[in-house]
């Protein structure tokens, strides 16, 4: 029902009541003044008119899109490879123990059989001898062929590397081999092509490069 319709209805009811009061029998209600009823109807009409105020539509607060949280930068493989270490021990500890590559297995085998128990610098120097041989042009060009070359390393049996107990010493040998192949640490026996115990010197004209642990290295 609209405001005007409500006002008209109240007015009709008011006048109807006024007529009723005028024609009804005497009672306690005869004391009601007709002018008072008219004023009441007018007051109701004014009240209804004052309600004819446009309602304010609540403002809709726009929803602001939430920005996704910034993701933590993940280091790339290049950044990991370029990592610098303060000690050889840190460089070795940073390597994992996976040895799927054949060259890595051959090099780790040589480190294990020739220098397990030696200082890390001595194990790295053994690895450098094998790598230097593969690069020299005077020995086979493949790391595994260098290790298995006849008459070079006494641990080799029938051209094969014996089975290895894959414990802590072998895991260390794998890590040292990875450091050597990645050239991640400078060996104290740089350019060495031979090594032997202190009481045995390689045949031929060789130059001593370094003495590490129980081994002496030559080029």
UniProtKB/TrEMBL annotation:
It holds the Pfam family Hydrolase_2. The keyword Cell membrane does not apply. Keywords: Hydrolase, Signal. Residues 1-29 form the signal peptide. Residues 117-218 form the Cell wall hydrolase SleB domain. GO terms for molecular function: hydrolase activity. Gene3D superfamilies: Cell wall hydrolase SleB, domain 1. The keyword Hydrolase applies. It comes from the Bacteria. This is Cell wall hydrolase.
């Amino acid at each position: 029902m609209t405001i005007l319709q409500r006002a008209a209805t109240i007015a009709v009811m008011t006048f109807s009541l006024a007529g009723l009061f005028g024609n009804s029998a005497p009672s306690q209600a005869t004391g009601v003044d007709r002018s008072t009823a008219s004023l009441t109807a007018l007051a109701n009409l004014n009240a209804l008119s004052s309600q004819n105020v446009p309602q304010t539509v609540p403002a809709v607060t726009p929803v602001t899109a939430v920005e996704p949280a910034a993701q933590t930068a993940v280091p790339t493989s290049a950044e990991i490879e370029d990592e610098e270490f303060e000690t050889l021990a840190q460089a070795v500890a940073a390597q994992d123990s996976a040895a799927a590559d054949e060259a890595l297995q051959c090099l780790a085998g040589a480190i294990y059989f020739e220098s397990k128990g030696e200082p890390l610098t001595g194990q790295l120097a053994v690895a450098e001898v094998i790598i230097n041989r593969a690069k020299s042009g005077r020995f086979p060009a493949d790391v595994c062929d260098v290790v298995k070359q006849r008459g070079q390393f006494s641990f080799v049996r029938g051209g094969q590397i014996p089975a290895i107990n894959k414990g802590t010493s072998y895991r260390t040998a794998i890590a040292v081999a990875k450091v050597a192949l990645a050239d991640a640490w400078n060996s104290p026996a740089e350019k060495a092509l031979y090594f032997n115990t202190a009481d045995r010197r390689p045949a031929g004209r060789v130059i001593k490069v370094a003495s590490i642990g129980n081994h002496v290295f030559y080029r």
